[in-house]
C-alpha cells in the first residue's frame, strides 16, 4: 500500500506538470500586449513550474522503482519532495489561486494531495 501511494502521487504530479506546459503559449498571449522580455519571463516561469512538477514526480518514481522505497535515502527524497510541493502550493495559494482561472484555483489542492500521498507512502 505504501508503495502504491508513492506511485499514485508520482503519476498525478507528472501529469499535472505536463498540464502546466501545454498552455504556456496561451498563458503568455493572455497577458495581451506586453514587452518581448516580459513574454519570455512569463513563458520561462510557466515552463519552470511544469518542469519542476515533472521532476518531483519522476524523482519519486525512480527512487521507488530503483531502490527499496523504505530505505533512509528514499524517505528523505519523499519528504523533501512533499515539502517542496507544499511550498509550491502555498505560493500558488497566495498568487495564482486568487485569479478567476479554475486550474490555478485547484492547483494548491493537487499539490497538497500529492504531498500527503508522499508523506503517507513514506511513513505507513
Total of DSSP H or I helical runs spanning 4+ residues:
5
- Overall body shape: elongated
Characterize the largest beta sheet: strand count, sense, and whether it forms a barrel.
none
Query: Low-confidence runs (pLDDT<50, min 5 residues)?
Result: none
Number of domains: 1
H and E order: HHHHH
Briefly say what this structure is.
The chain has 124 residues and is mostly helical. 82% of the residues lie in helices and 0% in strands.
What does this structure look like?
This protein is mostly helical. It has one domain. Helices cover 82% and strands 0% of the residues. It contains five helices and no strands. It is elongated, with a radius of gyration of 16 Å. The termini are close together. 25% of the residues are buried.
Key features?
single chain, 124 residues, elongated, 82% helix, mainly alpha
Draw up the topology in text.
Layout: H1 2-21, H2 24-29, H3 36-66, H4 72-94, H5 102-123
Helix pairs in contact: 1-3, 1-5, 3-4, 4-5
